[in-house]
Amino acid sequence: MDMKTLYLIVPLAPLAGALVAGLFGRVIGRTGAHTVTILGVLIAFAASVLVFQDVQAGNTFNGPVYTWLTAGDLSMEVGFLIDRLTVLMMLVVSFVSLCVHVYTIGYMRDDPGYQRFFSYISLFTFSMLMLVMSNNFLQLFFGWEAVGLVSYLLIGFWYTRESAIYANLKAFMVNRVGDFGFLLGIGLVLAHTGSLDYEQVFQAAPGLANEEISLFEGHAWPLLAVICILLFVGAMGKSAQFPLHVWLPDSMEGPTPISALIHAATMVTAGIFMVARMSPLFELSDFALSFVMVIGAITALFMGFLGVIQNDIKRVVAYSTLSQLGYMTVALGASAYSVAIFHLMTHAFFKALLFLAAGSVIIGMHHDQDIRNMGGLRKYMPITWITALIGSLALIGTPFLSGFYSKDSILEAVHFSNLPGSGITWLAVTAGVFVTAFYSFRMYFLVFHGKERFRNAHASHGHEGEEVSHGHHSEPRESPWVVTLPLILLAIPSLVIGYLLIEPLLYGNWFGHAIRVETASHPAMTDMAQAFHGAAAMGMHALTTLPFWLTLAGVASAWYLYMVNPALPQKIRRRFNILYLVLEKKYGCDDFNDWFFAGGARLLGGRLWRWGDVLVIDGAMVNGSARLVGALAGMVRHLQSGFIYHYAFAMLVGVLLLAAWFVG
Amino acid sequence: MMEAMLSGVGLLSLAIWVPIVAGVLILMTGGDDNREGQRTLALVGAILGFLVTLPLWAGFDIGHARMQFEELAPWVPAFNVQYHLGVDGISMPFVILNSLTTVLVVLAGWQVIQARVGQYMAAFLIQSGLLNGVFAALDGVLFYVFFEAMLIPLYLIIGMWGGPNRIYAAIKFFLYTLLGSLLMLVAVVYLFFQSGASFEILAWHRVPLGMTAQVLLFVAFFFAFAVKVPMWPVHTWLPDAHVEAPTGGSVVLAAITLKVGAYGFLRFILPIVPDAAHELTWLMVTLSLIAVVYIGLVALVQNDMKKLIAYSSIAHMGFVTLGFFLYNPLGIEGGLIQMISHGFVSAALFLCIGIMYDRVHSRQIADYGGVVNSMPRFAAFFMLFSMANAGLPGTSGFVGEFMVVLGAMQENFWWAFFAATSLITGAAYSLWMYKRVVFGKVAHAQVAGMPDLDSREFLVLLLLALLVLGMGLYPAPLTEVMHASVNNLLDHAAQSKLVY
Question: pLDDT (tens digit, 9 = 90+) per residue, A512-531?
Fold first, then answer.
C-alpha cells in the first residue's frame, strides 16, 4: 500500500463510519452504529500512527488528491500536506476522538439519538482531519466550516431544548463572523499571490513584506499585517478569542462527550493550528503578532476570572478552556509556534480528561451539573476522582506534569519576546496562573471533598430536558468501564507527555520546515533554548520561581475559602457586589451582542423592508405609477365620447397634421 | 442509438418542442376526468424532454467557444428572421437545468394539484419548452418571442392556481416584466438596422456602436433583464409572485425564470455594448451589493417563509450580477455556478416549504415549531438545503459565492467585503428560520400531526440533495464546460466597439 492511499484512509474511514451510522442507523441498530464508527476511528488512528512513523523517518508529502475546480489560470485542489505538524495533529485528533467514541457508549446509553450522535462525532473526526491535512486554503476553509457545522448539529443535539437551539445558532453565527474575516483574508492571499496553495503562498510571501494596501483613502497599511489579522479573525471565531469567545460557554448545552472532543481538545484549537501553519506569513508582520498576543492575553486572564464564579461543572471547565486557548494564542503571538502546538497537545489530553471526568460526575449525579450540590464524591467514584485530580494538577501547571511544561514555556516565551505588548501580556498570563489554580481547585474541592451535599439537593434540578432515566435519591456510583477506561487512557499522557516531549518538540527542531520562525527578529525561542537544560532540570528549577508559588497560592486559597471557611465566599461576594455582577454578566458581552448585533440587524432589516421596499419602491414607485396611469386613463377617457363625428374630426386633424409634417 | 434517432431533428429543437407538444397533447385530453392520464402524460413528456437534453452534455466539445448543436432555417425571410438555435458553454447547462426542473415540478404537483390538472401540467411543460427556446435562440426576434411567450404560462400559473392575492401578484409580475421587455424590443429593432438588417445575435456582438447608442441600448436591455433577475430596486414583484404562486410555480420562477435575466446580461449586454458596460460597472456593482446587503437584512425579518426565501433569492442573484461585472473568470464563472446552484437550492427550499404547506396550510413561521419531532427525515433534508442556502462548503451554495468573493477581491477590497457579509446574513436568515420552524418542542397541535415525507417527496428531495452535494464537492466538470465560452466572452468584452 503506498502512502497516498494511507493518507486517504485516515479521513475516509471515519467518514464511512459516519455515513453508515447516519444513513442506516435504524438498520444496524445501536451496537452496529457504535461498532462501525469506532472501527472507522480506530483505523484512522492506526493509519495515523503508520503515517507518523513514516514522517518520523524523514518523509513528507505535499500533493493534490483531485482538482475541485478551475477558473482562469487558477486551479483549486483538494490535497494533503503531510509533515510533522500535520501528523502530530492527526494523532491528537484521532486518539482523543477514539477515547470519546468509547466513552459515548456509556454516556449516551439511554439516549434515543444514539446512532445520530455517533454519526455526528465520526463526521466531525473526518472534517477535522481534512482540516489539518490540507495543503491549501480552500480545503482549510472547507474543513473549517465543516467542523463548525458538526459543532452546530451537536450543540443542538437535544433539539427540543430551547437553550440548546439558541446556543447552536449563536455558535454558528459567531463563527460565521470569524469566517467572514477569514474568507476576506483568503481572498487577499489569492489576489496578491495568485495561489491558494500553502507552498506557493509561503514562497511568495517574503516578496509582499514591503507592500502596502490602502483600504481607506489616505491610509496605507502593510499588506501582510492586514492579511494576517483577517486570517486571525477566523481563528478568533473558531478558537473563541475575545471578543468572539461568547459562543463557547453556551456550547456546553451539547452532550458532554462533544464538549470534550470538539469544544476542548480539537475543534477550538483549529485556530491555533491554523496560525501555526501560517507561521511563514505571521512571521513577516510584527504588528499582527502583537495583535495576536494581546488578544490572547485578554482572553487568558479575563475568561479565567469568569471561571471563578461558575457553578455548573461544565461551565467551569469551559471557561478554563477559553483561558487556556488564550495562553496558546499568546504563544503564537510570541512567535513560539511550537510551544503553542505543544500546549495544544497537552491541553487536548488533560482538558478532554477533565471534561470526560465531569461527564462521569454528571452521570454519577444523575445529570445534575451544579457543583454546589456535589461534594465528597471521591468516596463513591474513585477512578473519576483520581483521574480528575491528575487532570486538574496538569492544568494548573504542577511541575513535572504535562501542563507544566507547556504552560511554563509559554510564560518564558512571552518573557523573552521583544514585541510591543509583551510586557503587559506577561503580567496577564502570570496572574492567570493564580486564577487557573484557584478556579480549578475550587471545583475540585467542591466536587470531590467536603460535605456530601447531594443528599439534600436533588429537589433543585437544573436540566429538565436531559435524559434522566435512573431513579433519584440514590448514591453516586462509579461509572461503567467504557467511561472510566477513556479517563485512564487520557490520564497517562496528561501525566507524562510533557516531560517526554518538551525537549524534542521545542528544542530539537522536530517540526523542521513545518514551522518557520525568523529567529533574527523574534529570538524568543533561541533565548529559551539557551536557558533550557533538560526536562528534569526545568521541573526542579520551577520550584523556586514565581509561577509555582502563584499556583500553590491559588490551590491554598481555594482550599481555605471552600473547605475551611465556606461562609467566607458569600461575605466576599456581598462586599464586592459590583465586581461580582460584572462577572455574573460576563462583562456584558452577551447582552451587548444581543442588543447591538442581533437586535440592530433585525431593526435595520425591518426598517429597510417597511420603508424601502413597502413604502418607497412599492408604495410610491410601483403602485404610484399604476395609480398615475389610472388617473391619466381617467382623463383620456373623457375623449371617448362615443359620437362618431368627434372621432372623425379628430382623425381629420391628425391626417392634416401628418400631411403638413411630410410636406414641410 | 438515441443520437442516430434524433439526427434528423436537431437536439435543441427537440428540447424545445418535445415538452410543448406534450403540453398541447395534455390540453387535448380534456378536463379533470382524465387526471391520472394527464399526470402520467406530463411525467412522460417531462422525462422525455429531459432525456433529449442529455446528449447536449455528453456531446459537448469543451475545446472551443463556438456555438454547438446549431440549427438554422429561414423563418420570416422578408425581414431576415431566422429559426437559429445553438448553445455554448454558457447556455447549455441552463437547458439541462430547466428540463430537469420540469420533471421535479411535475412530480411536486402530483397530488397537491387536484383542480384543472391538465392545464396546470400543460402550462409547465409549455413553459419548459419556451425557456429552452430562450437559452438556445441565436436570432434576436426568436429570442424576443420566447422571452415574451414564457411569461404567459407563468402568469397563468400564478393567476389560476395561486393564493388569495394572486391577481395582484400576477398583474404586478406581468406589468413589471412586460414594461422591461418593451424597451428591449426597441433595442432589438435598432440593432437590426445598425447591423445591416440582421437579427443574428452573434453578428450584433461585432457591430460597432457609438457611446450614446451603447448607453441607450444598455439602458433598454438593462430594464428587460434587471427586472427578471431581479436586481434592486426593481425586485418587489418577486416576493409577491412567490407568495401567491403554487409550489411548482415558485420552483420554476426561482430555478429558471430568474436565470433568464442574468443570462441576458452575458448574451446581450457584455458583448454588444462593452464600452457602456465598462462605463456603468460602478452602477451594476453598487446595485448588486445593495441586493446582497440590504435584501439580506430584509430577508431576516420576514415572517412568511416563502417571502423569506424569495428575498434570499434576490440576495443570491446579487452575487450573480456582481460576478458578471467583475470581468474576470472567477467572477463570471462564479456567477454562472451561483445561478445553477441557486436553481437547485431555491427549488429545494420552495419544495420544502410546499411540503409543509400541504400539511398545515400555512406559510407563517409562527405557525410551526418543532417540525423535527414529527418529520425527522424531512428535517434532515431541510437542514441540508438551509445550509446550502447559507453557503456551507461542500454544498453547491458555497461554490459560486466563494468564487465571486475571491473574484471581487481581485478588483476591490470593499466589493469583496460587502459581498462576504452574506456569509453572516445568509446564515442568519436561513438558520434562524430553521430554528423557529424545525427545532424546539412541538409548538402547535397541527405540527404534531404532520406525516413525514412520502416516497414521492422523498425521491424529489433526494435527487436535489445529491445534486447540491455533488456540485459542492466536485464542481470542476461544470466550470470546464464554461471555460472556453467565458474566456471568449471576456476577450469580447475587453475590446472597444466605439466608433468615432
Answer: 888 888 888 888 888 888 88
pLDDT for A114-165, tens place per residue? 999 999 999 999 999 999 999 999 999 999 999 999 999 999 899 888 889 9
Find, in chain A, the residue whose alpha carbon is nearest to that of B474: A68
- Whether residue B294 and residue A142 make contact (CB cut-off 8 A), yes or no, is no
Q: What is the rounded end-to-end Cα distance, in angstroms, of chain B?
A: 55
Strand segments, DSSP code E, in A39-179 are: 61-71, 74-82
- Asked if the Cβ–Cβ distance from A74 to B475 is below 8 Å, we say no
Enumerate the residues of chain B whose CB falls inside 8 A of the CB of residue A145.
Answer: 392-394, 398
Using a CB-CB cut-off of 8 Å, the residues of chain A touching B474 are: 66, 68
**Alpha carbon separation from A398 to A385, A390, A392, A408, A494 (Å, rounded):** 17, 10, 9, 10, 11
Distances in whole angstroms, Cα of residue A494 to Cα of each of A306, A329, A487: 25, 21, 10
Test B372 with A159 for CB contact under 8 angstroms.
Answer: yes
Angle (CA) A249-A318-A42 rounded to 5° is 110
Report helix, strand and coil shares of chain A as percent, to nearest 5: 75, 5, 20
C-alpha cell at B405: 468573493
pTM of the model: 0.90
Bridge-partner residues for A70, per DSSP? Answer: A75
The answer to whether the CB atoms of A173 and B424 lie below 8 A apart is yes
A71 CB neighbours in chain B (<8 A) are 329-330, 333-334, 403, 479, 483
Contact A69 B428 (CB under 8 A): no
Other CB atoms within 10 Å distance of the CB of residue A635: 8
d(CA A602, CA A593) in angstroms, rounded, equals: 12
Candidates B297, B302, B392: best to mutate against A (most CBs of A within 10 A) is: B297
Residue of A92, A105, A82 lying closest to A270 (CA atoms): A92
> Cα separation of B374 and A55, whole Å?
50
State in Å, rounded, how far the first CA of chain A is from the last one. 94
CA distance B158 to B170: 6
Q: By the CB < 8 Å criterion, does A215 face chain B?
A: yes
